Every structure is written in C-alpha cells, then in structure tokens.
Amino acid sequence: GREALADNVSITDISAVSQIKLPNHLLKLNTKIENMGPIEKRNIPVELYLNKERVGQIVSHFQPERSKEFLFQVYPGKSGVIRGKLEIPRDDYALDDYQTFELTIPEQIACKVIANSQDDLFILRTILKSISGKDRFLDIELKTMSRIDQVYLEETDVLILQDPKYLSASAIESMKRFLGEGGSILWFAGKNSENIDSITSSNLKLPEFIGRVQLEGESYFSVEVQDRDNPILQELNLRDINSALPQVFIYNSVEKQSYQKMILSLNNGDPFLIEIPHSGSQIYYFTSPLDLKWNDFGIKGLLIPLIHRLLILSATDEMNTSMVEVGQSKYIKIKKDLINEKWSFVTPSGNRILVVPDYNREALIINQIHELGSYDVFAGDKFYTAFSTKLSPFEKPNLRAQSNQIMSILGKSRTVWINPDTDIMQTIAAQRHGKVLWRFFLIIAIALFMFESYLSRPRPDALKV
User: Fold this and answer.
1) Among 166, 167, 181, which residue's Cα sits nearest to residue 278?
2) Torsion over CA: 174, 337, 342, 184 (sign)
3) Which domains are assigned to the chain?
4) From the CB of residue 285, how many other CB atoms can be counted at a distance below 10 Å?
5) Can you give the pLDDT at residue 434?
6) For the whole model, what pTM was predicted?
7) What confidence tens digit (pLDDT) does each residue in 82-103 have?
8) φ, ψ for residue 351 (rounded to 5)?
C-alpha cells in the first residue's frame, strides 16, 4: 500500500472539438487537467506539441482536488496522420503527466458518383470540381447507370447516388460491405424513390417512402435547421443560415425511424436531410435531389460548403488512430492490396514486433499493448498508421482504498499490510517460512545465563558460617 500523493497534477482528457479536420483550417483541441493532490499548484505550464513542434502553451494554477479545461486552437499544417502530445511538469505520479494522441486529416478523398444521365451529373460534377481545386483534393469518378447491377467500391471513400432507379442484390451487398468497411453514402432521392423496393430499403435502412409532395405555382417549402450542433453545420460561418437554405418545390415524403437523425427539415416538419447510421458509418439521405425543378439548392451558396463538409466527415475514418487503454487489444483495418505485406509495429520504447494479419477480417489485432505512449504501424518498411495508449481510469492514484477498508473485507487474520518503506521480500519470506527466531532465543538464553550467574555468585558471609 501507499499513502495518498501530495503532489499530483493529472492530464485526464484531450479530444478534438470538431470532427471535420482540414490541413489549412483551424483545429480546436479541448483538454482537461486535474489537481488530485491536497496542495495548490501554481504556475504550471501546459504544453501542446504537434509533430514534435510546440504549438501552444498555457500557464495556470490549480486548486486542490479541482480540474480545469483548456481550449487550444492550432493549424495542423499538413494532411495524413498528425502526431500530438500534451505535457505538464513531472510530479509524484509521472504516468499521467503526458498524453500522446493522433489525428487523421484526409490527404485525398476518392469519390464515386452514379446518376441516371449526364444531365443528372452536371450539378454534382460542377460542385465536386469546385471542391477539388487545383490540388485535386478529390479523386472523382463519374458514372451513368440506369440500373445498378454491380458496383465496385474497393478504392472509394464516398459514394454519391443521384436518384437511383434500381439496385440489384449484388449491388446492395457491395454497398453494405462498403459501409461496414468505413465508407459513406450520399443519397439524393428523386422521382425514382417510389420504385425502390422494400428489400433495398430494409437492407440499407432507408426511411419508408410515403409519397411525392408537389406544390403548384410559386409556392414553396422553406428548409429549417433541426440539429445545429451536428458536425456538418457546426462552425459553419454564415451570418444568417436560414437565408442560405434552399426553397423546395417538390420532395419525397418519408417516415424516418427513431434511430435516424433529422439534420434539416421542411417547415411542415417533414425531413429534408437525414443521417442514417449503418454498420458504423452513415448514409446521408436528401428527400429532394439536386434538380432546379425540385428545389433551388443548386444556386444557393450553402451547397458547396455543405457538400464539402459532408465529404470530409464521411471520408475521415479515425478507427485506426483512436486511443486504446493499456492492456487492451487494438483493431486496425488494413487495405486489401497490402494484406500480404510484412506487418510490424514499434512500441514507445523502440522495440519492433512482427504481427500476422487476420486475413478473414482484413485487419491487424495487436494484443501486446503494455506501454504508455505512441505506437507506429508499418506495412513492410513503409509507415501505415499510428495510435496511442492511455491509462485506465481505474489507475488514477486518487482511487486508492484505505488499509482498514481492505483488511476488513479480506480479514485481518489473513492479511498483512505492507507499507512503502517496508522490506517486501523479508515480509513475504516471513509469512511463508515463519519469522527467524534464533536471535530471540539467543537473547533469552543469554539473559537466563546472566540471571543464573547472578544467583549462583559466591557470598563471603555464607562461607564464614
């Protein structure tokens, strides 16, 4: 056992505020620092590093047994896997004085668009080329298919469907597998929604089609925000978002399920944009397509930033870089074309360990996680990804039971409490073999010998008589 630590300031949490991350955009990181000791700590520096460069520092003081939250705003500067570290000065418990982390910023998004005709592709082609820019941020593949019998999505991050007419059983299975592997779908529902059968709807968890609603003359439905805190709309810099939303003349009335989230709605309460969770990914379902006969979304300034954010959010897969507690297993998805590579990972102490992929699941299962810090994963000699470990919340030094509490549960006669300044080996040996008693008996023998010598000493008075 050990006494409560007098000097312990702990990093308890660090996380990105926004789920949408871009290399040249401001990134907000929220941190939480807690003083677990009984003394006030003053002038404590809290330092943030990205890719081994210090990008932020805060100096603060902490009251005993109180916590503070800090918000760092930084520019990542590049795409790919960003390595970070939050650090405070060393104290009595060093394991919670630093925390490493990783962030994933997409380098390029592979986007496949399927529509019924070239006319249906026009608006989407224009939007995606505008988003891609000179740096070719998007890898765009455009296809016209009146019937989707087969679809290959192995190298695709986001699939965009503009009012599909028919999906075969093979195409549905490909999309389900695509969603299960981390891909996302943007679905614009138009006049063909009434032809989507129940098998397709149930397999892809689409909302139930009720009917088509069309207004006459110059009447229209306005669009309203239902979930302003959704990452798609969060931090969207618009003075008046309502004026940037489209006017809708025709839409498909659908009934959403309880687990489906309505992000945008019409002013009559019907959904306009629904987020549908599916196999750990999402389908974003618009009840009105990108068609000027149905709505004026195509000429609204909100369209491009909204689609941009949808693509970023859909393509950002942080499963591989998410933190894992020390002692647990780490699951890492790997690409099919790399599955036969020689896989290895490097521990925080620098040891390289080979690992065999799970070929059925197309993943790495890393079980030897015993160190605190950042792990690097390699496919052959090429860096693949990285992840960090964190302490279990049960490892906090302030979560310690008192000796009398433990001994009352286990029984005092069967329990020996060992203090930090006690020789552990000697205590254990004494419990196993008994105490060494020869010194005790030797002292008693010497004492009795001296007592007997005193009693049998010669007395002159007795000799004269």
Assistant:
1) 181
2) negative
3) 1-104 (2.60.40.10), 109-315 (3.40.50.880), 318-400 (2.60.40.10), 403-455 (no CATH)
4) 27
5) 57
6) 0.75
7) 999 999 999 989 999 999 999 9
8) -80, 135
- Segment 42-52 mean pLDDT: 94
210-237: average pLDDT: 89
pLDDT at res. 435: 56
Pick from 320, 300, 304, 321: nearest CA to 312: 304
Which tokens belong to 24? Answer: 């040249």
- What sign has the CA pseudo-torsion 423, 424, 427, 432? negative
Measure the CA–CA gap between 449 and 444, rounded to whole angstroms: 9
271 to each of 263, 284, 309, how far by Cα in Å?
8, 12, 20
In angstroms, the Cα distances linking 155 to 22, 112, 140 are: 21, 9, 11
- Tell me, what amino acid is at 103? L
DSSP 240-292: -HHHHSPEESEEEEEE--TTSEEEEEETTS-EEEEEEEETTEEEEEESS-S-T
Positive or negative, the CA dihedral 190, 196, 200, 201 is positive
Maximum CA extent, the chain: 148
Amino acid at 145: M
Other CB atoms closer than 10 Å to residue 85's CB: what's the count?
19
CA 128 to chain centre: 28
**Residue 399 structure tokens:** 């979560």
d(CA 18, CA 264): 19
CA angle 57, 233, 103 (to 5 degrees): 40
For residues 128 and 111, the answer to whether their CB atoms sit within 8 Å is yes
**Per-residue pLDDT reduced to its tens digit, 322-344:** 999 999 999 998 888 899 999 99
Nearest to 348 by CA among 373, 323, 366, 324: 373
Assess whether pLDDT exceeds 90 at residue 294. Answer: yes
Model confidence at 464: pLDDT above 60: no
Q: What is the pLDDT at residue 174?
A: 95
Q: Are the CB atoms for 326 and 369 separated by under 8 Å?
A: yes
Distances (CA, A) of 103 to 38, 76, 203, 324, 386: 35, 9, 32, 14, 9
At CA 51, angle to CA 13 and CA 397, rounded to 5? 30
Question: For the chain, what's the residue count?
Answer: 465
In the three-class reduction of DSSP (H, G, I as helix; E, B as strand; rest coil), residue 346 is classed as strand
Among 304, 229, 235, 231, residue whose Cα is nearest residue 73 = 235
- What was the pLDDT predicted at 241? 76
CA distance 139 to 284: 20
Q: Coil, helix or strand for 370?
A: coil
Looking at residue 4, its pLDDT comes to 66
**β partners of residue 117:** none
pLDDT value at residue 352: 95
Q: Which residues contact 230 (CB under 8 A, 6 or more apart)?
A: 261, 263, 275
